[in-house]
């Protein structure tokens, strides 16, 4: 599969796959085989979080060695990080929250971005600034499917990628909502599988996640 995300800033991360893996890379040597396993399982959009010292190098490695991956950067909280991750090859940006300065940097990056929200006022503020696609975080703690369902009537133009506490069991409930394009999660990357470099297991779990749909457990 060729890279499915066009270079246009208008391209949507929300439509690549039902699940975006949220990846924490502790060992740089794991980055490429992990990404290959996720892509082989049908999850091309991979959010590498900036939570470890090797995260930037992991993005660079995946961008350079896994051409079918659409690698993005998560936990982006400063304008400097925006510049660094785009230079490393990130093709989309995800933040846990936003400020006007961060939003300006993400908008100017030339790649798609999902600023984080957890309240109605934050959603309205982003809509006012012309942003319609957002990360809803922390999804379960912030009200889950009930909250997003309540937002869909007064703010139908907003679309979300909920992340935080979502499981294979709850993902279809989120995906059933009209304002949810995809969900973010890490359940396809159990710590013991990554520690043991069991990439076949990661691929199997990724394939199951890629098959999730609004109606049940598989497409």
Automatic annotation (TrEMBL):
Enzymatic reactions: 2-dehydro-3-deoxy-6-phospho-D-gluconate = D-glyceraldehyde 3-phosphate + pyruvate
User: Which PANTHER family does the record match to this protein?
Assistant: 2-DEHYDRO-3-DEOXY-6-PHOSPHOGALACTONATE ALDOLASE-RELATED, 2-KETO-3-DEOXY-6-PHOSPHOGLUCONATE ALDOLASE
Q: Which NCBIfam families match?
A: eda, PRK05718.1
Q: In which pathway does it act?
A: Carbohydrate acid metabolism; 2-dehydro-3-deoxy-D-gluconate degradation; D-glyceraldehyde 3-phosphate and pyruvate from 2-dehydro-3-deoxy-D-gluconate: step 2/2
Q: What is this protein called?
A: 2-dehydro-3-deoxy-phosphogluconate aldolase
Q: What are its E.C. numbers? A: 4.1.2.14
Q: Which InterPro entries match?
A: Aldlse_KDPG_KHG, Aldolase_TIM, KDPG/KHG_AS_1, KDPG/KHG_AS_2
Q: What CDD domains does its record include? A: KDPG_aldolase
| Superkingdom of the organism of origin | Bacteria
Task: List the top taxonomic levels of the source.
Answer: Bacteria, Bacillati, Actinomycetota, Actinomycetes, Kitasatosporales
- Encoding gene per record: eda
State the Gene Ontology terms under molecular function.
Answer: (R,S)-4-hydroxy-2-oxoglutarate aldolase activity; 2-dehydro-3-deoxy-phosphogluconate aldolase activity
Q: Keyword annotations for this protein?
A: Carbohydrate metabolism, Lyase, Schiff base
Any one Pfam family match given in the protein's UniProt record, by short name: Aldolase
- Per UniProt, the enzyme's principal EC class comes to lyase
Family of this protein: Belongs to the KHG/KDPG aldolase family.
Subunit text: Homotrimer.
């Amino acid at each position: 599969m060729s890279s499915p995300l066009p270079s246009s800033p208008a391209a949507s991360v929300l439509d690549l796959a039902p699940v975006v893996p949220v990846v924490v890379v502790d060992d740089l040597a794991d980055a490429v085989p992990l990404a290959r396993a996720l892509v082989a399982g049908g999850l091309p959009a991979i959010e590498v979080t900036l939570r470890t010292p090797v995260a930037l190098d992991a993005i660079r490695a995946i961008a350079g060695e896994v051409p079918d991956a659409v690698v993005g950067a998560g936990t982006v909280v400063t304008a400097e990080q925006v510049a660094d991750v785009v230079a490393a090859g990130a093709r989309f940006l995800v933040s846990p929250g936003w400020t006007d300065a961060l939003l300006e940097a993400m908008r100017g990056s030339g790649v798609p971005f999902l600023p984080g929200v957890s309240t109605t006022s934050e959603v309205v503020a982003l809509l006012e600034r012309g942003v319609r696609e957002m990360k809803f975080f922390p999804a379960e703690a912030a009200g889950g499917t009930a909250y997003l369902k309540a937002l869909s009537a007064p703010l139908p133009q907003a679309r979300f990628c909920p992340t935080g506490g979502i499981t294979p069991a709850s993902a279809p409930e989120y995906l059933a909502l009209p304002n949810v394009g995809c969900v973010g999660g890490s359940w396809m990357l159990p710590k013991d599988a990554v520690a043991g470099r069991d990439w076949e297991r990661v691929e199997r779990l990724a394939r199951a996640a890629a098959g999730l749909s609004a109606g049940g457990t598989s497409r």
